Amino acid sequence: MHHRYDVIVVGAGGAGLMSALYAAKGGVSVACISKLYPTRSHTGAAQGGIGAALGNIQEDHWEWHMFDTIKGGDYLTDQDAAEVFSKDIIEVVYELEHMGLPFSRTPEGKIAQRKFGGHTRDFGKAAVERSCYAKDRTGHMILQTLYQQNVKAGTLFFNEFHVTDLIIEDGRCRGVVAYDLATGELHTFHAKAVILAAGGYGRVFKITSNALTLTGDLMSIYYRKGLPLQDMEFYQFHPTGLAKLGILVTEGIRGEGGILRNSNGERFMERYAPTIKDLAPRDIVARSMTTEIREGRGVGKDKDAIHIDLTHLPREVIEGKLAEITDLARTYLGQDPVKDLVMVQPTAHYAMGGIPTDLNGLCLSDGNGGSIEGLYAAGEQACVSLHGANRLGTNSLGDLVVFGRRAGRYAAEYAKQVEYAEMPENAEAESRRVFDDLRAASGKDNAAAIRKELQETMMRNVGIFRNGPDMAKQVEIIKELKTRYKNVGVSDTNARYNSELVEALELGFMLDCAEAMASSAVNRTESRGAHDREDFHQRDDVNWLKHTMAYRDMNNPGNVLIGYKDVALKGFTRSFEPKPRVY
């Protein structure tokens, strides 16, 4: 089946919905393709808030937010992206408010703000209230608000469609191919511009806050075209996921005064970050927790978790501002935050790397400014390098709406200037081959077994603490798993609602993302942000102040070629001492 729209958006989370909305506002026809019904997208799991220097509680400035973003990213952040973001997010938050997003309020009726890890005033002197929130359901409220606005704007949705290929010829994107779960048919979507916003790939890890759908599909498809993935070695582990489950416990729980305690009842973050303690950036808190566990001060039956203590807070704060987390802890752990210490442990949470883009979302084809005409990306799938080596808390929701808005606007502007490029006659051929191979394979391996081994070994070898031998071992493990994957078949050969087929397809995508990640990680011989090596303890700005660009070796699949891209520096030095530009 063939469709034609000016702009196609892949993904219906915060970035996809924001992109679609602003493309529609640009006066072009827009269709949004999603694995899920839009309001079930993973953005709904984001709880804590969206950071913006509104200054509603105390003095704040976008320059301070910019500095925190750059410092949080351990100086791998592109500083032009941080500047654009820190300015634009203020306007975008007010836009969301005017769209009807029900932010929590101050007594005066202003948007409420609270403290969040890594957010400071005066370039790091003290914590600041910067996170705008809707209780602890901020992401969910963003999804609901943007979906309603898209319905109003006339965006057409194709739900439960899985994109299987990007159609790129002569340096221009011409559309996508997608599998309709309900009918089993392949659909070709012809477009002037395509925006990729389908989220991350956290399911490559055993313990993760990511939804089952986050398997890096479009990152893998882009990579298979011989195009680069940027900074894949940097993967953030959120300090607080519910023990054993990985379900996210918002950083807002610490912003409201929650305290991390070890088995001795000690507030151990005073040792690791004496100034802002539990509100330190996520990589520092996650490593501190893991160190406590390694040294025998963990809690729980297996001593592999840490307590978060809210018992000193008023009940109305816990059940009001942290209602969702309170319910999750009671339901899944049988622990009541009002009176009990809640067990948490670090959980794989967010990809800093992804498909490289410029400030307007245009996808880059190399580290020298080359691009793919008509192809844009936004959100966790993209890497404009706002987050550098470690994303600052609240900047994920901000990234979705700021760069989603920019991608939508520029894609619409581009679509109005060009005609449709001709689609190849065999646009669906590659997707049909992949499905036919999965249906025809008769190997003894199954997708579930390979997926389990991938997730366990990635957690063990490319997790919070890393070293060269373990990561090199993981590179070889992934090669072996990819060889086994070639023999994976499916027992269900039906076309309609074939979840076994979809999961096998997604495993292939996950293996590609893991391959690029592990190879990039073993190649970077320093510690920076979320990439913490036990064999290279120091950050090395002389040799490693550069972005990694990982390419699939098209002549020898299974090998990864590494290139580099310069970091955009604009006003802040490489040291931790702030030397801001004069504005």
From TrEMBL:
Keywords: Electron transport, FAD, Flavoprotein, Membrane, Oxidoreductase, Transport, Tricarboxylic acid cycle. Substrate binds at residues 238, 250, 349, 391. FAD binds at residues 11-16, 34-49, 217, 380, 396-397. The modification Tele-8alpha-FAD histidine is found at residue 42. It is an enzyme of class 1 (oxidoreductase). It is found in: Membrane. Flavinylated by SdhE, about 5% flavinylation occurs in the absence of SdhE. This is Succinate dehydrogenase flavoprotein subunit. It comes from Deinococcus radiodurans (strain ATCC 13939 / DSM 20539 / JCM 16871 / CCUG 27074 / LMG 4051 / NBRC 15346 / NCIMB 9279 / VKM B-1422 / R1).
